[in-house]
Design a protein that fits this description.
This protein is mainly alpha-helical and 94 residues long. The protein has five helices and no strands. Helix 3 packs antiparallel against helix 5. It is globular and about 35 Å long. The mean pLDDT is 95.
Length: 94
């Protein structure tokens, strides 16, 4: 899928999780685009990988009932952490 589609799907995950009061969708959309722009071009730690981790985190947290036990800011933090977990990762081992 093109990364624009992944950005749209990431936004859908944030919205379906319930955005915190006062956090505008446009601000979240710009956040997602900034994350995509900050990902380095390497074979594994790229935007497709972090989207995959975000989607898996969302699916597991929903299936286990974790999402239902979190408040809106905690859900936003969980999904944001998944999306940003490899931000600017150079793709080398330590």
């Amino acid at each position: 899928l093109p990364s624009d589609v992944l950005c749209h799907l990431a936004m859908e995950m944030f919205v379906s999780a319930g955005l915190p009061a006062g956090l505008a969708e446009d601000r979240v959309r710009r956040f997602i685009l900034a994350v995509r722009a900050s990902m380095l071009d390497n074979p594994y730690h790229n935007f497709y990988h972090v989207f995959d981790v975000m989607q898996t985190t969302n699916a597991l947290a929903t299936a286990t009932g974790t999402m239902a036990r979190l408040d809106a800011w905690e859900r936003f933090g969980l999904l944001s952490a998944a999306l940003c977990h490899d931000l600017e990762d150079p793709g080398v081992t330590s």
